[in-house]
Specification:
Blueprint: E1 10-14, E2 26-35, E3 39-48, H1 53-75
Antiparallel strand pairs: 1-2, 2-3
Length: 85
């Protein structure tokens, strides 16, 4: 797993790229969600190295956006975007 997720977006860690020995036979598709500096979390899929990456990446990305929107709504704020809008 990455020591720190940098920015928004989906990260994919495959097999031996995982630092944790216990999951080196698996892949991890992970993304951060929430409001930086206030409420953040991570959502991930852990599966075989031959998983359907396109489906996993799309699912994790979609859920991270939905959860970010929910947290922004709960905090009464706008979701920060990459374009700075």
């Amino acid at each position: 797993m990455p020591d720190k997720l940098v920015g928004r977006g989906v990260h994919v860690i495959i097999g031996k790229e995982n630092k944790a020995e216990a999951i080196q036979n698996y892949s991890v598709v992970i993304s951060q969600y929430g409001l930086p500096g206030e409420a953040i979390g991570c959502i991930a899929v852990i599966g075989p190295t031959r998983m359907q990456y396109a489906r996993s990446i799309a699912s994790v990305d979609y859920l991270a956006e939905v959860l970010s929107g929910l947290i922004a709504w709960l905090y009464g704020k706008k979701i920060p975007t990459e374009a700075g809008n």
